[in-house]
């Protein structure tokens, strides 16, 4: 038989029919199709092909024996649409249509109110969340409703696992007018589940859902199990309440041996344990209750390690006969099958009731059963009660269970049954006339542990989640749900994926580590216990699932000639988790507005987002569509483009640029890339203009980024506002003018945002002098690739560069660096959120370090310098512009090398000497080497320069050691009291105070001489002398200070009169006074004022006193640091200063409070830092630091102790300078001080 004679096009034997469905219902469309060869069937929703992979769990497609079906799970408002099923084979194509109309339970009335249709958008959504028992969690979304009407309030509903939540002590719901928030006040495992926010308006509703996971709280005893959950009361009677719960997923590493049930009477706080031994079954009848009282319950699990935390308490329930409970609620006791309004039939006196009906065992364990039945079929049984009888299976000996009183309600629980025996049960009715015939007997059945679930199949979902499905447990009775566990391959450590059982056989496990290999197992749970684990699944790698890409968009024409057109389009917003391998273009002719059939423009996929469609006809109109492809397949086609006329372009200006891209997004800048126009116009392109506007701004808001055309096809756009959304367009220019802007007016990354944690490219030079660019990305995926470019063109020729990539780091090595390597080097990491960076090797606008690498010279921020530190130590230092981690430094002194300290972060290189000796005089040199780059800096310390430095170092060293023991803070001096007594005084460290009165009337010649005070203890000693000789020989050292006019030198004499001759000298020559240099006397102060000081004013100054009997000279060196400090203070009057208020020493008793305040000045307001023993301290409860009004800095210790003793400093700093103030705190204990005195 000829095979062709059997072929025929598809034909719908049974077409799908339309459905009207309620919210959350499932619906199935099915059809039967014939045809040869077997047709290929595709389902469409509003002409868009349905892909089950892109919406996991939403759609299910089946094809079996020519019957094809589409199942839609949990219908909502978005499922209202026209559905089309298309059958296609080589003989033709046929389609059938069906519609689904969605109805909402809670909505009534028209879909618009007052002629307004509301549009609802849910933004700023909460994601998959993880919490722990006992914590508080808030879930929130921002809701935008358009149009925004004043005082219009939508209905906000929250659901957990499709159950509406109401406010309670566990949940709080809040609506602020634009944000819906659900607060879970005290998390328990009962709170785990899928949370859904539903915003309802008269025009419909919008929903958003995400899963919340609740982990167990830390066990009070190590190894104890997790707490049980979902404690509830299954049956309540006057003398018993049956409590049920769910077993926890975590057993602590040891099997759970049972559970303890606790009860608490409502209104009290006393908990009583209901069972003496643990019960293994997850149900327990609690007896010994007081009728009419209400109780709450909780459950604890126990294993050999200890007891779990208690579960969340149950809802309160009263111990009461069910019939009494119904009467209290006002519920009718009319039988369910009696029609309303029917007159009841009353029993006549002496009539015995019939048999009870439908006797069932509603609940059974190894120790108790619960029976339920229906009253007899006769009417009017308000006075009927019941007797329950039992019989051991295999015998005919019936025993009445409730021998004392019959029960009123058709429900009864039997306890204390013999474990291992099987029983029959029956029920009799009774009334005043007697006891009726028994019901049909039944056997008690027990609930056994379910069998293990079947095969477990994990599938990829996202970068942090996996979809796990499994075969249900067979013949499981009263199944509560399933627990899923995950383990990293080869770790043998299992972690629960859910802490609340799920009833479905499919679950999404979240919180997994991207790139890791996991295996899964499942076990079932019911009241009897947990099943064995299922077989372990095959390993699966955690990575985004691969699906066919979404359709491209933004089709535009770049060039048009008589018989061809060049098209461009934008990459799909969703690429399916795999790189796009190419695109397919279709076209169709449009005649008088009616489109024709689609034709393939290319058989082989094109990799670029631009393609020339040939073999078109001039002056004909065409539409185009594009499909993207990846390793998962070819995606659905794009929306048909606009209708384009095929006619040759003759305009003089260029066509539009295309393929705009954004990279290197930072806090206030980004880099924009584009491709040049295909159509250049009459002349070559000589530049580009870039326009920018905010995304929500009108068209007239476009503004130019550059005023001068840029020749390159990239630009770095700066001074952007962080968090703003921008769109861009590019226009090309030639001699004829500026052409059309790029189509779409937007880049492929329309949202401008900052990639947090983005690292920059780092330049390194190794010991061999090899230069490399290094880039690290922390957000890589297994599919990520590092793409290096030079001047934003991918590097393909590798003769000058070697690229090495390992894990999340990539390195580009310059083989032979030279002038031709100058340019912008950038690195882009694929399959990330756009992680990228660049580094510029350029002769213009680049860093000093970039040039130094090419010129093999290490630049310096500062040359070699010297300064004195504490203890008179001498520090030699310099700072390099930048050096790699492999840089080396040598210190050379008189041709000998020494070790150095190198801070690679700041580039500071230093060498510290404890003191200077005569042998240290000479030339100091620092030699730097970073690969092949080198540099050096030298400092000459010879002659007077070295001697002065050595002298100052030695003085500072002596001062330091002097101050380690008892020492003078103020040396011995004198004071004339109002009574004309001369008081000798000095100020010393710690608690020493020495004063001496010389005379009560005056001082005579016999008191002339030198007075000395010696201060010593076991730590050392210090000496201070005072010369009371002729007045000329009594003066203070010459000091330097700054004034508003310049620099002032001054000294104080003990007594000044006109007989005292004063001479000022500069560099051993008498000073010629003028308007700029003046001298004078104020009280006992003699001063020399130098206005507008310059470098010429540096040098040695001296003041000589002569009273005719003898002379005295005081000198000071106004040079070096002394001159710089005075000059800077004069030149920068606004520099930071510690104006005063701090003592030198504070001696305080332990336990007392210490409070010190000092004045701070400076403009701008200085930064204040406090130090203890040269280490920074911060404010806390013990030491409170404040800086108020920009003027007052306070230091408070609330209760001092011996550890607070030490040297304290305040450091103030602004842009004009830095100053510090020091004080010492000494804490003493009264008892120890008293002991020493004894």
Automatic annotation (TrEMBL):
Keywords: Cytoplasm, Immunoglobulin domain, Muscle protein, Repeat, Thick filament
Entry GO CC: M band; myosin filament
GO molecular function: structural molecule activity
Cited InterPro entries: FN3_dom (IPR003961), FN3_sf (IPR036116), Ig-like_dom (IPR007110), Ig-like_dom_sf (IPR036179), Ig-like_fold (IPR013783), Ig_I-set (IPR013098), Ig_sub (IPR003599), Ig_sub2 (IPR003598)
Keyword flag Repeat: yes
One of the GO biological process terms: sarcomere organization
Lineage top rank: taxon: Eukaryota
Subcellular compartments: Cytoplasm
SUPFAM superfamilies named among the record's database cross-references: Fibronectin type III (SSF49265), Immunoglobulin (SSF48726)
CDD domains: FN3 (cd00063), Ig (cd00096), IgI_titin_I1-like (cd20951)
Domain Fibronectin type-III: 227-322, 355-449, 452-545, 551-649, 656-752
Protein's name in the database: Myomesin 1b
Main location per the UniProt record: cytoplasm
The Ig-like domain, residue ranges: 10-101, 133-213, 750-842, 1133-1226
């Amino acid at each position: 038989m000829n095979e062709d004679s059997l072929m025929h096009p598809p034909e719908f034997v049974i077409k799908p029919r339309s459905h009207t469905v309620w919210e959350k219902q499932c619906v199935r469309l099915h059809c039967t199709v014939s045809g040869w060869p077997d047709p290929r069937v595709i389902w469409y929703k509003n002409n868009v092909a349905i892909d089950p992979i892109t919406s996991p769990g939403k759609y299910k497609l089946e094809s079996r024996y020519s019957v094809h079906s589409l199942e839609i799970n949990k219908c909502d408002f978005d499922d209202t649409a026209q559905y089309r099923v298309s059958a296609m084979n080589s003989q033709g194509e046929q389609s059938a249509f069906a519609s689904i109309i969605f109805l909402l339970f809670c909505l009534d009335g028209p879909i618009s109110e007052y002629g307004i249709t509301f549009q609802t958008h849910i933004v700023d959504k909460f994601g998959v969340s993880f919490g722990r028992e006992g914590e508080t969690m808030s879930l929130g979304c921002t809701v935008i409703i358009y149009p925004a009407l004043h005082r219009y309030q939508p209905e906000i509903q929250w659901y957990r696992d499709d159950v509406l939540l109401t406010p309670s002590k566990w949940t709080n719901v809040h609506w602020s007018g634009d944000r819906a928030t659900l607060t879970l006040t005290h998390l328990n495992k009962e709170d785990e589940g899928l949370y859904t926010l539903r915003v309802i308006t008269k025009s419909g509703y919008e929903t958003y859902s995400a899963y919340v996971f609740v982990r167990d709280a830390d066990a009070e005893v190590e190894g104890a199990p997790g707490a049980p959950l979902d404690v509830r009361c299954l049956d309540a009677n006057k003398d018993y309440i049956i409590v049920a719960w769910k077993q926890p997923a975590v057993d602590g590493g040891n099997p759970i041996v049972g559970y303890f049930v606790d009860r608490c009477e409502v209104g009290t706080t006393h908990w009583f344990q209901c069972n003496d031994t643990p019960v293994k079954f997850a149900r327990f009848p609690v007896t010994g209750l007081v009728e009419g009282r209400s109780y709450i319950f909780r459950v604890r699990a126990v294993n050999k390690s200890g007891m779990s935390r208690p579960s969340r308490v149950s809802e309160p329930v009263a111990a009461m006969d069910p019939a009494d409970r119904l009467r209290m609620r006002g519920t009718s006791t009319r039988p369910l099958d009696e029609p309303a309004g029917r007159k009841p039939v009353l029993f006549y006196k002496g009539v015995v009731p019939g048999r009870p009906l439908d006797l069932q065992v509603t609940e059974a364990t190894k120790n108790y059963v619960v029976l339920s039945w229906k009253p007899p079929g006769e009417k009017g049984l308000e006075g009927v009660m019941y007797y329950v009888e039992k019989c051991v299976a295999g015998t005919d000996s019936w025993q009445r269970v409730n021998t004392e009183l019959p029960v009123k309600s058709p429900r009864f629980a039997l306890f204390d049954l013999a474990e291992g025996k099987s029983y029959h049960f029956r029920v009799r009715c009774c009334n005043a006339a007697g006891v009726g015939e028994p019901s049909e007997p039944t056997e008690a059945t027990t609930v056994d542990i379910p069998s293990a679930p079947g095969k477990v199949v994990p599938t990829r979902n996202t970068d942090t989640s996996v979809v796990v499905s499994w075969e249900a447990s067979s013949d499981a009775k009263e199944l509560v749900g399933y627990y899923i566990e995950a383990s990293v391959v080869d770790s043998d450590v299992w972690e629960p994926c859910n802490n609340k059982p799920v009833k479905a056989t499919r679950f999404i496990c979240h919180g997994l580590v991207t790139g890791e290999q996991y295996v899964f197992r499942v076990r079932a749970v019911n009241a009897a216990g947990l099943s064995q684990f299922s077989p372990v699944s095959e390993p699966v790698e955690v990575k985004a699932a691969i699906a066919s890409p979404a359709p491209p968009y933004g089709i535009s024409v770049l060039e048009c000639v008589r018989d061809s057109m060049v098209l461009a389009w934008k990459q799909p917003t969703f690429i399916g988790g795999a790189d796009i391998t190419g695109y397919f273009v279709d076209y169709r002719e449009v005649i008088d507005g009616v489109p024709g059939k689609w034709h393939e423009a290319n058989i082989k996929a094109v990799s670029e987002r631009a393609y020339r469609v040939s073999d078109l006809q001039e002056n004909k109109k065409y539409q185009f569509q594009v499909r993207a492809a990846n390793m998962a397949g070819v995606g659905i086609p794009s929306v048909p483009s606009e209708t384009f006329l095929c006619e040759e372009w003759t305009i003089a200006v260029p066509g539009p640029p295309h393929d705009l891209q954004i990279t290197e997004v930072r806090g206030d800048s980004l880099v924009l890339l584009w491709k040049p126009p295909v159509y250049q116009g009459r002349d070559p392109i000589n530049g580009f203009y870039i326009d920018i506007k905010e995304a929500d701004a009108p068209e007239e808001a476009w503004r130019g980024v550059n005023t001068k055309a840029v020749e390159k096809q990239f630009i770095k756009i700066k001074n952007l506002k962080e968090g703003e959304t921008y769109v861009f367009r590019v226009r090309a220019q030639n001699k004829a003018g500026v052409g059309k802007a790029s189509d779409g007016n937007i880049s492929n990354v329309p949202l401008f945002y900052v990639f947090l944690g983005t690292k920059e490219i780092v330049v390194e030079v190794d010991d061999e002098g090899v230069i490399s660019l290094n880039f690290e990305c922390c957000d890589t995926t297994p599919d990520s690739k590092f793409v290096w470019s030079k001047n934003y063109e991918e590097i393909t020729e590798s003769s000058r560069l070697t690229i090495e990539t390992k894990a999340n780091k990539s390195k580009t090595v310059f083989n032979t660096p030279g002038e031709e390597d100058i340019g912008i080097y950038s690195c882009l990491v694929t399959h990330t959120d756009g992680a990228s960076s660049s580094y510029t090797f350029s002769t213009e606008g680049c860093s000093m370090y970039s040039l130094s690498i090419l010129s093999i010279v290490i630049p310096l921020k500062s040359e070699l310098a010297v300064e004195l530190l504490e203890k008179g130590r001498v520090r030699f230092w310099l700072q390099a512009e930048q050096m790699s981690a492999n840089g080396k430094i040598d210190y050379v002194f008189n041709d000998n090398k020494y070790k150095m300290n190198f801070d690679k972060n700041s580039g500071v290189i230093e060498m510290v000497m404890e003191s200077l000796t005569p042998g240290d005089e000479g030339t100091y040199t620092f030699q730097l080497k970073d690969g092949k780059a080198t540099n050096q800096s030298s400092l000459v310390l010879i002659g007077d320069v070295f001697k002065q430095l050595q002298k100052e170092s030695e003085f500072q060293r002596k001062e330091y050691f002097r101050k380690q023991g008892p020492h003078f803070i103020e040396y011995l001096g004198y004071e004339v009291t109002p009574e004309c007594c001369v008081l000798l005084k000095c100020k010393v460290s710690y608690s020493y105070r020495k004063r001496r009165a010389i005379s009560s009337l005056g001082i005579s010649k016999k008191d002339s001489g030198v007075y000395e005070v010696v201060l010593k203890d076991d730590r050392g000693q210090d000496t201070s002398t005072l010369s009371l000789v002729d007045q000329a020989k009594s003066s203070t050292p010459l000091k330097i200070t700054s004034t508003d006019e310049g620099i002032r030198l001054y000294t104080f004499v003990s007594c000044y009169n006109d007989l005292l001759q004063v001479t000022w000298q500069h560099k051993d020559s008498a000073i010629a006074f003028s308007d700029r240099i003046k001298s004078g006397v104020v009280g006992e102060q003699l001063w020399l004022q130098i206005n507008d000081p310059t470098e010429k004013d540096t040098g040695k100054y001296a003041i000589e006193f002569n009273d005719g009997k003898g002379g005295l000279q005081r000198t000071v060196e106004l040079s070096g640091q002394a001159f710089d400090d005075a000059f800077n203070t004069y030149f920068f009057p606004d520099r930071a200063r510690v104006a005063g208020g701090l003592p030198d020493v504070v001696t305080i008793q332990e336990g007392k409070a210490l409070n010190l305040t000092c004045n701070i000045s400076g403009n701008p307001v200085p930064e204040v830092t406090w130090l203890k023993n040269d280490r920074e301290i911060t404010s806390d409860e013990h030491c409170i630091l404040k800086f108020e009004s920009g003027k007052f800095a306070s230091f408070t210790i609330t209760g001092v102790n011996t550890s607070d003793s030490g040297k304290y400093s305040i450091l103030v700093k602004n842009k004009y300078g830095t100053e510090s103030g020091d004080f010492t705190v000494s804490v003493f204990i009264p008892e120890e001080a008293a002991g020493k005195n004894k």
